[in-house]
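Both lines are given unchanged directly below:

***
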Amino acid sequence: MIENYPQCEQTKIQICEYFNGKRKKFDIKVNIEGTDFQKKVWQSVSDIPYGKIKSYKDIANMIDNPYSMRAVGQANRRNPIPIIVPCHRVIGKSGKLTGYCGDKTYIKEFLIDLENKNNKG
């Protein structure tokens, strides 16, 4: 059972808090495997504040690789822990919601709306 693993239990608690609007930043210790580039992208994405969005170009600029927007998108696509590494906060330069877990942009929209709703007040 999940209760036998303290880190899993803590993750479950923090994700529930996130969906209930009580958590805006995760403090779970994770060690994500990926390329150096992917890790830079995921760290930059993790630094996007709750309820805010950035474009793929913004992330490319943040990692000092200004022409790597598509590669940033591919790194986000390979993000093994969405929500904790909040890749839903990354959108197209035009403001369009692009890619999330394949073609599930409705999930990205739901998460952005959830954060906007919980960020008010």
Q: What stands out?
A: Residues 68 and 106 are 25 Å apart (CA to CA). The first strand starts at residue 54 and ends at 55.
